[in-house]
Amino acid sequence: MAGFVDTSEFRNGLKIEIDGEPFVIEYFQHVKPGKGSAFVRTKIRSLISGRMLEPTMKSGDKVGLPDIEQKDMEYLYSSGDEYYFMEKKTFEQTFITEKVLGESKNFLKENTQVEVLYFNGKAISVGLPNSVDLKVTKCDPGVRGDTVSGAMKPATMETGFVVNVPLFINEGDVLKIDTREGGKYLTRVSTAG
């Protein structure tokens, strides 16, 4: 543990440690009822498993700060269910399993710059850029004259991820995909050809 923090210092995004597990505060609210002592309602998400908890703490309680380190790294390749990353300064390599990566694996292509979060010296999660450019590898062709406003079709990206795209998208197009909202299509970056 890297120290302690009082509930009065809580803020969204603060990383805390409870029962030896690192969490990030998603939401908190200080409550001062008419009777009784003040308390803090929180919603916290585990940085390891992603599970959500909603503990209530007394005002003035102290919680631990986790021993967390963040490193800028580059995604190299995957082998089986292991995804390999390299630190840009030291060329040190580490891997993260597919289970730990979760949905993040859908947006990783070679040379993607990411932030790898370490807890007690072990890689636990990957912070992706807000958007990534991915090439369409499989997609039904758009039918001429099919111009229904807002109509979408599925397209398979180079990472194997399937995203709904507008009808005018073709195989070989490069698309900008939002990594924050589960992979929404944002715009076409370039066309096939």
TrEMBL record:
Going by the entry's taxonomy, the superkingdom of the source organism is recorded as Bacteria
Any Pfam family hit: EFP_N
Where does it reside? Cytoplasm
Q: Which SMART domains would you find in this protein's record?
A: EFP, Elong-fact-P_C
Query: What GO cellular component is one of the record's annotations?
Result: cytosol
- Annotated Elongation factor P C-terminal domain ranges read 132-188
Q: Which GO terms describe its biological process?
A: peptide biosynthetic process
Translation elongation factor P/YeiP central domain: residues covered = 70-124
Entry keyword annotation includes Cell inner membrane: no
Q: Which UniProt keywords apply?
A: Cytoplasm, Elongation factor, Protein biosynthesis
SUPFAM superfamilies linked to this entry: Nucleic acid-binding proteins, Translation proteins SH3-like domain
* Gene Ontology molecular-function annotations: translation elongation factor activity
Looking up InterPro entries in the UniProt record yields: Elong-fact-P_C, NA-bd_OB-fold, Rib_uL2_dom2, Transl_elong_fac_P/YeiP, Transl_elong_KOW-like, Transl_elong_P/YeiP_cen, Transl_elong_P/YeiP_CS, Transl_elongation_fac_P
| Pathway connected to this protein | Protein biosynthesis; polypeptide chain elongation
Q: Which NCBIfam families match?
A: efp (TIGR00038), PRK00529.1 (NF001810)
Family from the record: Belongs to the elongation factor P family.
Its annotated function is as follows: Involved in peptide bond synthesis. Stimulates efficient translation and peptide-bond synthesis on native or reconstituted 70S ribosomes in vitro. Probably functions indirectly by altering the affinity of the ribosome for aminoacyl-tRNA, thus increasing their reactivity as acceptors for peptidyl transferase.
| Protein name in the entry | Elongation factor P
Q: Which organism is it from?
A: Corallococcus terminator
Upper taxonomic lineage = Bacteria, Pseudomonadati, Myxococcota, Myxococcia, Myxococcales
